[in-house]
Specification:
Blueprint: H1 2-7, H2 12-25, H3 31-42, E1 46-49, H4 56-64, E2 68-73, H5 80-92, E3 95-100, H6 106-113, H7 117-120, H8 122-137, E4 143-145, E5 162-165, E6 170-173, H9 181-191
Parallel strand pairs: 1-2, 1-4, 2-3, 4-6
Antiparallel strand pairs: 5-6
């Protein structure tokens, strides 16, 4: 089956069935074992996506698939600390950093849609600068890994460790879905994994600078994303 998957001869239905079965079989598996399954099954047709909030999943994947592609979306609105984390990950980890960019620069988008689109229509801004570039960037892969965790928000509580991304027709792997923030912190401490410096400066979740703020005591970890806008996801995962 592995050779067939790598050769890209399976239908979408086959891939979907593979994903759903793996989700059941691997529900209690370790993050490393889930990623090993993905690496063994898809080889170079598998990648990791990272927002560079931390490099936990990239680090985990690099241990089972050295040189794994780590895909980063450079929206043009990132904090300097996020770009610095990306560059550090590329320099010190055994990964191949792939940076995706939107078709338009921020200036070009401003010229067409007007300045600060993220304030007036954040869904459209995310679609242009995140969702579309990722869809285009994932065309070379059959499966992708994310750092989604069930404890992050109610919207993510049902995240499978392996599932089927119906919109993109890809296998979606979330190896740390069952982890808690304490698990992440412990892994970072044990392995010295790179994290975004903003996590030590009051930011519990790091996105684009115009749409991210520090969280207040007692707030949900994602409360600082699109605060006051009634928006909780960028569209990449829903």
């Amino acid at each position: 089956m592995t050779d067939t998957l790598r050769a890209g001869r399976l239908t979408d239905e086959d891939l979907r069935d593979t994903a759903l079965q793996a989700g059941r079989d691997l529900e209690e598996a370790s993050a490393g074992d889930i990623l090993k399954w993905a690496a063994d099954t898809f080889g170079k047709a598998f990648c990791v996506t990272s927002s560079m909030e931390d490099a936990v999943v990239a680090h985990l994947a690099s241990r089972v698939l050295p040189g794994v592609d780590v895909v980063f979306l450079d929206t043009g609105y990132h904090f300097e600390e996020t770009i610095g984390t990306r560059d550090a990950v590329s320099a010190v980890m055994d990964v191949n950093l792939v940076t995706l960019t939107p078709r338009q620069s921020v200036a070009e988008q401003d010229a067409e849609y007007g300045p600060r689109l993220h304030d007036r229509d954040p869904d459209l801004c995310c679609a242009l600068r995140k969702v579309k570039p990722l869809e285009e960037g994932l065309t070379a892969y059959a499966a992708w890994a994310t750092g989604l965790r069930r404890d992050e928000s109610p919207n993510r509580a049902g995240t499978p460790v392996v599932g089927w991304d119906e919109k993109r027709r890809k296998v979606k792997v979330s190896p740390i879905a069952r982890w808690t923030q304490d698990d992440v912190d412990a892994y970072v401490a044990e392995h010295g994994v790179l994290t975004n410096p903003l996590l030590d400066d009051g930011y519990a979740s790091v996105g684009c600078a115009p749409c991210t703020r520090r969280v207040l005591e007692g707030e949900d970890a994602r409360a600082g994303r699109w605060a006051g806008r009634g928006k909780t996801e960028c569209g990449l995962h829903g």
